[in-house]
Amino acid sequence: YGLYDYLRNSIQQLELPQRKAALIVPAFETLHYRLTFPKSKAELLSMLDMGSLYTFRYHVWPKGHAPTDYAKWRTATMPYRVAWQPDFEPYVVVRRDCPRYDQRFVGFGWNKVSHIMELDAQEYELLVLPNAFMIHMPHAPSFDISKFRLSAGYRGCLQTLREEFHQDLSRRYGAAALKYLTAERSL
Fold it and tell me: Per UniProt, what is one Pfam family of this protein (predicted)?
């Protein structure tokens, strides 16, 4: 509730139109098909403590959202900066003129990860909003995630596209892009 207005105010207060920043909206999830949506951060924290909400994908893909630093978010009252980490894929609000999603990554796999890498390569600040949140509701698996899980060919193709993306980053950003390739190889 009120996320749209909060985002509009944050955009103005943080001078987003004049600044290269990605505003991160922390993501949570429920395993219940019915949920009374929390009306405030305090309500959300209570639901989190009671176990009716969880940090997003903590049990299957913690690397995707862990850099958000949920422990810090619990008590934050001001936006705070986080650093890029491998496989980080937060939900963000950015200016219209930001880099677009790489069209190689359609379906399931690496669309948000590659986008955040590109934003980081262009030196966007990654700012977590202290009073924003979203909740993912359970749903049936998509056709594309089913293909990813069941097809070695799909996963192999995705790996090839990831390698091409890394090469393109290296060409565009030079030595600054080495951290992405180094991170990928150390995983």
Answer: Glyco_transf_49
Asked if the model's pLDDT at residue 182 lies above 60, the reply is: yes
Does residue 63 surpass a pLDDT of 60? yes
- Of 107, 186, 118, which is closest to residue 153 (Cα–Cα)? 107
Left if phi > 0, otherwise alpha if psi is -120 to 50, otherwise beta: which for 146?
alpha
Helix axes 152-173, 111-121, angle to 10 degrees: 10
Euclidean distance between the first and the last CA atom of the chain, given in angstroms as a whole number: 38
Give 126-169 pLDDT, tens digit per residue. Answer: 999 999 999 998 777 788 888 888 889 989 998 999 999 999 99
CA distance 54 to 182: 31
Kindly write down the DSSP assignment for every residue of 30-77, as one continuous string.
Answer: -S-S-----SSHHHHHHHHHHTS-EETTTTT-GGGTGGG-HHHHHH--
What is the Cα–Cα distance from 120 to 85, expressed in whole angstroms?
A: 10
pTM of the model: 0.90
Pairing mode of beta strands 80-82, 91-93? unpaired
Sign for the pseudo-dihedral over CA of 170, 175, 180, 183: positive
What is the C-alpha separation between 108 and 143, in angstroms, rounded? 9
Task: Please tell me the predicted confidence (pLDDT) of residue 187.
Answer: 55
Amino acid code (one letter) for 153: G
